[in-house]
TrEMBL record:
InterPro entries the UniProt entry points to: ConA-like_dom_sf, GH43_C2, Glyco_hydro_43, Glyco_hydro_beta-prop_sf, Glycosyl_Hydrlase_43
UniProt protein name: Glycoside hydrolase 43 family protein
Molecular function via GO: hydrolase activity
Residue span of region Disordered: 431-498
Biased segments, Low complexity type: 470-480
Alphabetic keyword roster: Glycosidase, Hydrolase
Length: 574
């Protein structure tokens, strides 16, 4: 299943059409099909590939970049680095995607079909701070060009666009480059970036944003010559709407000749969500986007054949132990992180690390985008890791993070734990009191919160074994407390009979994500869901929205530390 489509079912749609962090979108049409890609930064696989036939209903069909290069540099998380602002084009019967890695330069991959096989990354232009590249093959002259922007953090340069002649095979630039648009020479313009270059009506057009991701606008530039000079105009801005900073995206034309523009809106922890705007050409030849230059919230769908409602997949039953294409690792994956098996369920190895206290530093966190609408996230977890300190859970991951899951104690017991770390913190700490997990927990069918059993109460007197009837004075049935004179300490100093401890802990975990990305955590140990800890407000990284994550870890050491199995991952609208 997927979260709710933007298609309202009455011939209209609502924005955003992609309500999650599909950052810096670009789009191309091939025949009756539309394809979109987006920034993926330091996650792998990268360069997501989405497909639509009506520009409203989108599905994720794959990725164009299996691993980031140089591989060693992306063996550990670099959340805000990697793949920035790609451009997708179709030329010479091949798909092409160009992107800028701000630390290495302009790269491209290409393929004969959207599902590949895609080439390995090829470095087109090496250099620091080269970002947001876009190629143009001019069908009128046979020439090829490349335009890109600059990241001041790496190059000391910003607010300008540089153009090159490019080899027609897309492998290299043919000159030193020329600044073709200098934003410093345009009054009031700053942070000019994200160019997309087109040929239309005898003009070279560059559609490029300025003004910053949260407060910016969309600009259009035109010239009779690729190298300029260019005229400029603002063609989309917030106006009186609540859509802040609407800009940076792709223009596409339907088979019927309608024009549309897909762009992003920065929404804090949700990242950069994608809007669809109508585009028309004014009598003066300039593009008019949205409602006379302001974003639309609801609009008639493109004049295209009706399509069933769709959105990128989120749910996963992990058939045969495999995860769906909506998941990405926080760095290049290594062998052994996933244990393949025939049964359904994702079996993650408890990877040993000296950094188990900080999920932000770990490459083996499997993530997907945080939905932009209120929702509830659930997953079932079984921890089979035998190593003391082995843990697994469900996380909301960003510059600050919080997770809920299971951890094995030094005495072999399994505890339900809930932890968090602030943005400035270098290590996590408890967000709620740890709780022992009962043996062979079975989950109630109801999702309504149930009263906490006495076994898990945080206050009150020390727990004792329940009274025995004469017929059950020696043992209890499987899954219930065994009579014992030994007692095991709880983390808050109380004790309970050792027979209640689980050899393999199980729990159902839940995060309710409300408006403003405020997250409420809860858990079910067999008696229904119970709340845990304080409300946690998800936070993004600098350029990346918050992520949902699954992980399994163990402290540094030798030998196999066991595994954790996740089943029935679900995201439902609330």
């Amino acid at each position: 299943m997927s979260l709710t489509s933007a298609d309202l079912g009455d011939g209209t749609y609502r924005n955003p059409v992609l309500d999650a962090d599909w950052s810096d979108p670009d789009v191309v049409r091939v025949g009756d099909d539309f394809y979109l890609t987006a920034s993926s930064f330091g996650r792998a696989p990268g360069l997501p590939l989405l497909h639509s036939r009506d520009l409203v209903n989108w599905t994720l069909v794959g990725h164009a970049l299996e691993r980031l290069e140089p591989e060693d540099e992306y063996a550990s998380p670099r959340h805000d680095c990697g793949v920035w602002a790609p451009s997708i084009r179709h030329h010479d019967d091949r798909f092409w995607i160009f992107w800028g890695d701000p630390d290495h330069g302009v790269h491209q991959v290409n393929a004969p079909a959207i599902r590949g096989p895609w080439t390995r990354p090829h470095l087109v232009k090496e250099g620091k701070g080269l970002i947001d590249p876009c190629p143009l093959w001019d069908d009128e002259t046979g020439d090829a060009y490349l335009v890109h922007a600059w990241a001041k953090s790496r190059s000391g340069i910003k607010n300008r666009l540089t153009g090159h002649r490019m080899h027609p095979d897309g492998t290299a630039v043919l000159d030193e480059g020329k600044v073709i648009v200098d934003g410093d020479r345009i009054p009031g313009w700053f942070t000019l970036e994200g160019p997309k270059v087109h040929r239309h009506d005898g003009w070279f057009w560059i559609l490029a944003p300025a003004g910053g991701v949260e407060t910016g606008w969309q600009g259009a530039f035109r010239s009779r010559d690729f190298f300029g000079p260019y005229e400029e105009r603002v063609v989309l801005e917030q106006g009186d709407t609540d859509v802040n900073g609407p800009h940076q995206g792709g223009w596409v034309r339907t088979p019927a000749g309608e024009d549309w523009f897909l762009h992003f809106q920065q929404r804090g922890a949700y990242g950069r969500v994608v809007h669809l705007q109508p585009l028309r050409w004014g009598t003066d030849g300039w593009p008019v986007i949205g409602d006379e230059g302001a974003p639309v919230a609801v609009h008639a769908k493109p004049d295209l054949p009706p399509q069933p409602p769709a959105a990128p997949a989120t749910d996963d039953d992990f058939p045969g132990g495999r995860y769906g294409r909506q998941w990405q690792w926080t760095a290049n994956p290594r062998g052994g992180w996933v244990t393949r098996h025939s049964a359904d369920g994702l079996r993650l190895t408890c990877v040993r690390s000296a950094d188990v206290h900080d999920l932000r530093t770990l490459p083996n966190v499997l993530t997907q985008r945080l939905p932009g609408r209120p929702c509830a996230v659930e997953v079932e977890l079984r921890l089979a890791g035998e190593e003391p300190g082995a843990r697994a859970g469900l996380a909301v991951l960003g510059d600050a993070f919080s997770w809920i899951g299971l951890q094995r104690g030094a005495d072999g017991t399994v505890h339900l734990v809930h932890r968090f770390a602030e943005q400035v913190a270098e290590t996590e700490r408890d967000a709620a009191y740890p709780r022992l997990v009962p043996q062979q927990a079975t989950f109630a069918p109801s999702r309504r919160p149930a009263r906490s059993p006495k076994l898990f109460e945080q206050g009150g007197p020390p727990l004792a074994a329940p009274p025995e009837s004469p017929s059950t004075s020696s043992t209890r049935a499987s899954g219930r407390l065994a009579e014992s004179t030994h007692r095991t300490p709880l983390l808050d100093g109380r004790t309970l009979p050792a027979g209640a401890l689980a050899p393999e802990g199980r729990a159902r975990l839940r995060i309710e994500i409300g408006r403003g990305a405020r997250c409420r955590f809860s858990y079910d140990l067999g008696e229904g869901f119970l709340p845990s800890g304080q409300v946690f407000s998800a936070t993004p990284w600098r350029w990346v929205g918050a992520l949902l994550g699954l992980f399994a870890l163990a402290p540094a050491g030798e030998g196999h530390a066991g595994a954790a199995t996740f089943t029935h991952f679900r995201i439902t609208s609330t």
